[in-house]
Amino acid sequence: MQPGTNAAEAISTGREGIESVADWFAANWQQLPIGLGVAAAIVLFMLGLRFAGRWLSSGDPDCHHWRGVIGRVLEKTSIFFMIVAALDMVATYAAVPAKIERLLDILFTIGFAFQGAIWARELIIGVISRKAGEDPTETAIGNAMAVIRVLVSVALFAIAIIVILDNVGVNVTALVAGLGIGGIAIGLAAQGIFSDLFAALSILFDKPFRRGDVIQFDRTTGTIERIGLKTTRLRSINGELVVMANTKLLEREIKNYAGGNMRRSQLPFGLVYQTPPDELEKVTSLAKAAVESRKGCSFVRCAILGFGASSIDFELLFDSRSTDANKVAADRTAVALAVLRSFAEHKLEFAYPAQTTFTAAPDGTLVMPYPEPMR
């Protein structure tokens, strides 16, 4: 008798539910058009926001500015979310039956969870695209965008599913623990890949260099050809391709020669010790005149560095108002030739590694290896 009794009770409860819903419709049929009109107005308002987002993103498809990022987010608003949000909002202020209200709450939770994941994904991708600069294809973002989108989507939609299950009464504690353990295992297994990926993103956001820049690290100097997910490729000055892991590259001291609008050149030289001090005082003015004789070069300083083993050491510094390596090399050559001509004209001798041997006469006096100056 018990199974039959339960079935009868279930049928009776179902009939009561149908009757209560029917009674509610009968009691509120005049107010229903007003509620549906309010819901339609809410949907139209959201459609307007989506249209505005499409218009904003059309003017900035690569998200170089915030208008493109915001437009990208608004454009992804779904019709399903608009409808369930409008119905749930109307049901909140209307005395609808409990079952209909519960159904609308569940639908709104599902719609809002997935819509929030979509909004968050587009916001994150838009911000990354904005950080990529004028041409995303020339940076790591062009290569990493697909992977980033997958990782962000998996993370956000996993959170959305957990939120939905938790709101419908499912115990998600074990699921969250399992996902945490799985995430740790995947992270440990792909530690090297993720470290290089995040290093590529660090290059993207911090911009220590870009494609086409000439950089130097350790003893390598080259031009950036490609910034990938795991490695950065450079074309060295000798022509060979240098491949460097992003993580290892960022650990080194990097000199970027792309910045600024000029290059400073250093020209060391040495003069013989036999040069009189009065002649040494002329070196700075002669070096300055040699630098200024070259168009596009400006004199910085010329000073004595110290006393070397076989020379009085000088250092000449000057700036070339160009960043082109060939132009800088031509300026350096022209200045060096001008210094050679000027010093030769003023009888200033360059030193070279030499060793002087002093011998003694039978009476013990030193025999000088060079003639003594006339008095």
Largest sheet: 5 strands, antiparallel
- What class do helices, strands and sheet pairing give? alpha+beta
Beta content: 15-25%
Total count of domains: 3
Q: Topology as H/E string?
A: HHHHHHHHEEEEHEEHHEEHEE
> How far apart, in Å, are the first and last alpha carbons?
143 Å
Average pLDDT figure: 78
Extended strand count = 10
Indicate the low-confidence ranges by residue numbers: 1-5, 10-18, 134-139
Description:
The protein is of the alpha+beta class. The chain folds into three domains: 18-189, no CATH class; 199-256, SH3 type barrels; 263-345, Alpha-Beta Plaits (2-Layer Sandwich), CATH 3.30.70. The protein is 57% helix and 16% strand. The strands form three sheets. It has a five-stranded antiparallel sheet. A three-stranded antiparallel sheet has the order 6-8-7. The longest helix is centred in the first third of the chain and has 34 residues, at 98-131. It is elongated.
